[in-house]
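In the present case, backbone shapes were mapped to integers, as reproduced here:
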Amino acid sequence: MNDHSDITIRLVRQIGDIAAEAWDACANPATALPDCDMPTNPFLSYAFLSALEDSGSVSAETGWAPHHLVAEDAAGTLLGAVPLYLKNHSQGEYVFDHSWAHAFERAGGNYYPKLQASIPFTPATGRRLLVRPGPAAGEVEAGLIGAAAQIAENSGVSSVHFTFLTEPEWQRLGRAGYLLRTDQQFHWLNDGYGSFDDFLQSLASRKRKQLRRERREAVAAGIEIKIHTGPTLTEADWDAFYLFYTDTGMRKWGRPYLNREFFSLIGERMADQIALVLCYRDGRPIAGALNFIGSDTLFGRNWGCTEHHPFLHFEACYYQAIDFAIARGLKRVEAGAQGAHKLARGYLPTLTYSAHWITDPRFRAAVEDYLEQERRMVDEDKRQLDAHSPFRHTDHDGEPEK
């Protein structure tokens, strides 16, 4: 499809048909442009997305058929892309539309297939309109936004869903006619802390005591915790973690989304962007938490265990992540989907954003009404959670409460 005489937009059915350097120049421009200050995101990288496809974790057979949208100039240079998938279910997305599917199908429509612009199995905020900086960037982005909707309108697909967008992208998609949705996660923000104790001093006294107690009790059974990253990651580490991951996956989803080969591939292709927390008792791994390292954010992803110990989940997933972020000078930790219990551990409610194109006019109107109400509910819920922040407040004289 051609939206401009100099820019061609087309679908690519596997990321392997795109050069890694070309994809990364759009997805994480700072890797190719030394003067670019745009944060890098490990999930947008060619290494991560190709590992999903090459391992078979993402495929037509798993209900995630790659349909990546790419924009090229007349010379064939990649100017922009959207990680896009044709889906026949709503699993592994974390922006829940099952009720939409049931309602549309009760009315005689077919909700599937649909198009999903996202990172499979990854509820982490990041760009979805991966446009290389340059004079044509605005035109390329507008072309990708329009092309995604056009494909849906012309191909019998019910809808297009951009999930876990950045807020500026969300706003631009809204101006282009996409329906806007919000939700919330819990993120930790680094206020220039020099240590975990510095962070604790920012909390109310009762919360400080609680976190210190939880950290002590988490390792009281003689548990040792190590973080493996870069060349220290081994196949034995992945074997151990995969056992934990599959246990969690079977309990949550009935089957794990990611296969064992995926973890070997990310270990080969992006080990420096991985922080694998492993917990040992008597020298044997019993629990683990997988994190990915961006240029300014640590992304917590998966957790699992074969032994249950009080507060070990909090230690491995939340407190070790804070320690790591402070040591690396990272600005924030995104701890994944859901979990109001994170608030008491210093992770604050943060809005997440998605945008949706619905092709059926009557169904679109119904979804639009629903989303207006839902956004108000999300805002109110966030206000209530903000009021229960664990951080010290100031009294009327401007002095911090103890």
